[in-house]
Design brief:
This protein has about 200 residues and is an alpha+beta fold. The protein is about 50% helix and about 5% strand.
Amino acid sequence: MKLVGSLASPYVRKVRVVLAEKKLDYQIELEDTWAPETTIHKLNPLGKVPCLVMEDGYVMYDSRVIVEYLDTLTPVCKLLPPNGRERADIKNWEALADGVIDAAVVVRMERTQRPPELQSEAVCQRQLTKVARGLASMSARLGDSAWCAGNHYSLADVAVGCALGWLTFRFPEIDWRGDHPNLGRLLDKLVERPSFRDSLPQA
């Protein structure tokens, strides 16, 4: 398998973490979707990463689709239960974590891809409010638990860890650790895992 994406992308990192946890072999092909010469649209018509290219040439995209598929390939480190409420809860955690990233990405794009005179602070503040609410919800749901969902490591923790890691990387001014120390403790525990330690975001 070949994973196409960026070392800075939290969505790509989520897939990399799952690949590592599942002990699956793959090659990574770096792609800058903002570069004029990018050809990402040949793999994903939406022009987004990650893309997972299978051995037969079939291309899978969207991190949520990819990680769900990867979890079926081997029983090593099962990250999702087969069905039911517990599975839905973990996927709900993932949707929340990805939603926090989605909102923060809008802010980053507004501030880095648009000329200063066209940037909208109102747009940024609206999205940052979503980030703050999302983090507050994560913190409240986690409480004093060791893991996000149930009593074991799951895809929920992978998704939340990648979201928190990316916020630390791109938005150091957001003091989410000060506001939500339980999330900080979770991330500190996650980065002790080789899958997280070996996939730290890079510019």
